[in-house]
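Quick log. Single chain, no ligands specified.
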Amino acid sequence: MKNKYKTCTNNRTNTNITKQQKLEKEYVLPIHNILYKEETIPFLKSLLKLLNDNISVGNILYSVSYILLGFKLKEFNYLDKNLHITIPDNTKKENDLMGTIYQYLSAKNIRLAKGSFYTSNKMIEEIVSHLNIKDTDVILDPACGSGNLLFNSKITNPEQIIGIDNDELAILCCITNYYIKFKNTNIKPQIYKCDFGQYISKNKLKVDYILCNPPYGANIDVSAFSLNDYYEDSLEYFIRYSATISLKKSIYILPENILNIKKYTNLRKWILSNSNIECINSYGSTFSGTMFPIISLILNNEKSDYFYYDNKKINKNIINKIPFNYIRPISKEDEIFIDKIFTKKKYSLSDSIFALGIVTGNNKEKLLDKKVYNSEPIITGKDITKYKIKEPSKFIIYDRNNLQQVAPDNLYRNDEKIVYKTVSRNMNFAIDTTKSLTLNSANFFIKRNIPISSKCLIGLLNSQVYEKLNKLLYGENKIGRINLENLPIPYIDENIQIMIEKLIDDEKYDEIDKIISQLFDL
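-> predicted structure:
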C-alpha cells in the first residue's frame, strides 16, 4: 500500500544544518507547566546531569514513576536501574511532573522529529470547559502523550478514558499519571502503545469525544493505516481520521498556521465539507521552546452556516470564497467587502510570469555601495514605493556563476516588468522599463492574459481597496506570489483604464482610490 502522506524531511541548507546541530544540544525548560520553580527547576537540571551512555531518559522516568506511585510498573521493569533520586516535596505536587521531565530531558530536535509539544495547564483548563461529559461518555486522546488532556477532563471514572500513543516513554508517563489520578483503582488503564490508525481500524471504535494535541510535522509512517486517502502530514491524518469516529465533539490543539497556509488547503476544505466548526480560539505562543501561535479547533456534528473565531461570528460561505479557504477572523463588514470584490472577479494573475530577485548568497560581500568596473545597479525592496522606483543605491557585478539563485536573463531584461516589495505588509508595486536586475527583496512579474494595461494594473494593486483585501485574506508580513496569483482582478473599461493611467501620471493617487472603490460598488 502506498504512503498516505508525505514524511517530513529537513531542508538541508548549510544554515539549517547549523541549526540542527544546535538543536541536538538544546534542552528547553517547560516553564509554562512549572508551578514551584525554586525547587523544580534545580531538580530537573539535576536529572539532566544523570544522562549518559548507561542511563537513559527512560531509566530516569521509570525511577521517578516508582517514587511517585510507591510501586513499580511491571511492564517497564526493563528500565529499572535502581537510581537514587530524591524529589522535593513541592515538586511532587506539579500538575504533570512526568510529562515535564520527559519534555525537558528530550533534546529539542527529538521532540521536533516526533512532532511533540506538550500543552500548558492553563490552556487545558480552558479547553476542557467546552466539554459537557455524561457518565456514559467515552473520551479518546489518539496522541495522548503524558495524558494531560485526559486527566484534566473532569472525568472521575477511569473506564471512560482511552489513550493511545506510539511513544513508549509517553505511555510510561501516561500510565503513571493514570494511577496518580485514580488512586487505589483496580481498573486496568485503557492506555495503549500502538499506532492510532491501526487500533481504530481493528477495534471499529466510536467515541463521544476526541481530545488531541496531534503530532505536528512528525517523521512517522502511516502506510499501514486503513483509510484509502492521501494526507499532507501527521497532523492532517490525526484530525481527519479521529474526527470521523467522534459522535459528539472533537477538540484539537494546533499551530495557528493550519488556518492560513496553502499546505493545509485540503484539510480546511475537508473540515468545511465533512464536519462542523463550532469555534476557534487563539492562545498565542504557549509551547515551550517554540514561537508559533497556538489555537484550539472545536468540531461537532451539528451543521451550521456559522462558527466563532475568538468570539467573532464567521460565515462559512465567505471562507469558501477566500483563496485556499484561509480561515480568518472576519467581521460582518469585512464579509460584505470581500463578497463584493470576488463578485466582480473576471481575471487573475495566475497566467503571469513570476520571478524571484537575485539571491546573492552573501549580500555584504556582493552588494556594492558604489559603481565599479563591470557592475550595474540592482533594485532592492527599499527602492520600491507605490508607483515609483527610487534611484538604486546598490550595485552588483552580474556573474551568474557567482550567485546563489538567479532568474533567467530574459526576465530581468524584459522591456516591461512589474516589481514589488517582497517583505512588507503593504502593497508597493511599480513598473520597471530599464531592464534592471532585482534583489530577492524585490520580486517581479510579467503580466500575461489580462486585458488591462500594466500601468492601470499597478493602480489597482496599489489602491487602498487591495491593501485592505490583502490584509484581510492573508495578513502576512510579505507579499507572496501565490497570494498575488489568487487576487481577484475585475473587468475595467478601456476609458476607465485611460483615466487611471492619467491620474498616475499626475500623481493623483486619492482619485484612483475613489475609482477603484466605485468599480466594486463599495
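The first helix runs from residue 14 to 23.
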